[in-house]
Amino acid sequence: MNESDVAALASRVLWAAFALAAVFGALAQRTHFCTMGAVSDVFNMRDWTRARMWALAIATATLGFNAMVALGWVAARNSIYAGPRLLWLSAIVGGVMFGFGMVLASGCGSKSLVRLGAGNLKSLVVLLVLGVSAFATLRGLTGVLRVNTVERIWVELPTGQDLPSLLAPATGIAVPTLALALGSAVALALVAWVLRKGEGRTREVWLGGVGIGAVIAAMWWVSGQLGHLSEDPGTLEEVFLATNSKRMESLSTVAPVAYMLDWLMFFSDNSKLLTIGIVSMAGIAAGSAASALATREFRWEGFANTADLAQHLSGALLMGVGGVVALGCTVGQGLSGVSTLSLGSFLALGAIVAGAVLALRYQVWRLERDA
Question: Exposed end of the chain (fewer CB within 10 Å): N or C?
Answer without folding.
Answer: C
